[in-house]
Write a structure and sequence with these properties.
It contains 9 helices and 8 strands. The protein is an alpha/beta fold. It has a single domain, classed as Rossmann fold. The strands form 2 sheets. The protein has a 5-stranded parallel beta sheet with strand order 2-6-1-7-8, with helices on both faces. A 3-stranded antiparallel beta sheet has the order 3-4-5, covered by helices on one side. The longest helix is centred in the last third of the chain and has 17 residues. It binds 2'-deoxycytidine-5'-monophosphate.
């Protein structure tokens, strides 16, 4: 069984997807983290992120994999655990650009579809309901206003000890929304058959209960 959850940055989809997966005993797959991991690696290699031709060769022999442990999923790039590093602001700042490249998307799409075949999954991202798993049993498009989302990211960053101003975060979220929804390949878009869930005025547990009430396993 496949559940697709798409939506813009900081809409709460990852937190909700993780909790839902635990309740349903499904595997949670965070596709945004995959784009972040590749972006982290490209930044580390100091290539020009605006040049697809410099980025693609990096991924040719890349050993990229995801493992699950008690404290959640871990993302590995050439045997380096990048799970925490991919949440840093410089990765957030550049990931949307890297995600516009069709060869990057092809590389990750194959991996994502393969992972979704092997087990019951909840997968979250931008193009899951539209491109990656168009046949998903359930599709949700989770959103909230940019201000609410920036505030959530602000609190999340504080918890992680990352210092960023609220106004900078709002600006960065709006910029990412624009790049994600206007790119040519697999843009952020609600699938016609996805259900729209506005979480602006809902707590995480309210959203989880709402989605659970709609899912029949
Ligand atoms: O969900 P997130 O903030 O971790 O995602 C990071 C970026 O990755 C997001 O700005 C766009 C890109 N992304 C994508 O293009 N397609 C996906 N399925 C998931 C993420």
């Amino acid at each position: 069984m496949q559940i697709a959850i798409d939506g813009p940055a900081s809409s709460g989809k990852s937190t909700v997807a993780k909790k839902l997966a635990k309740k349903l005993n499904f595997i949670y797959i965070d596709t945004g983290a995959m784009y972040r991991a590749l972006t982290y690696f490209a930044l580390k290699k100091q290539v020009d992120l605006n040049n697809e031709n410099e980025i693609i060769p990096l991924f040719k022999n890349l050993n990229f994999h995801v493992t699950s442990s008690k404290d959640g999923q871990h993302f590995w790039v050439n045997n380096e655990d990048v799970t925490d590093k991919i949440r840093q602001p410089d990765v957030a700042e550049h990931v949307s650009q890297v995600a516009t490249y069709s060869q990057v998307r092809n590389f990750l799409s194959k991996l994502q579809r393969k992972m979704a075949k092997q087990q019951n999954v909840i997968m979250d991202g931008r193009d899951i309901g539209t491109v990656i798993l168009p046949q998903a049993n359930y599709k949700f498009f989770v959103t909230a206003s940019p201000e609410v989302r920036a505030h959530r990211r602000f609190l999340e960053n504080q918890e992680r000890g990352i210092d960023t101003s609220l106004s900078k975060l709002t600006e960065s979220i709006k910029k990412r929304d624009k790049i994600d929804s206007q790119r040519k390949v697999a843009p952020l878009k609600k699938a016609p058959d996805a259900e729209l869930i506005d979480t602006s005025d809902l707590s995480i547990s309210e959203v989880v209960s709402l989605l659970l009430s709609k899912i029949r396993v």
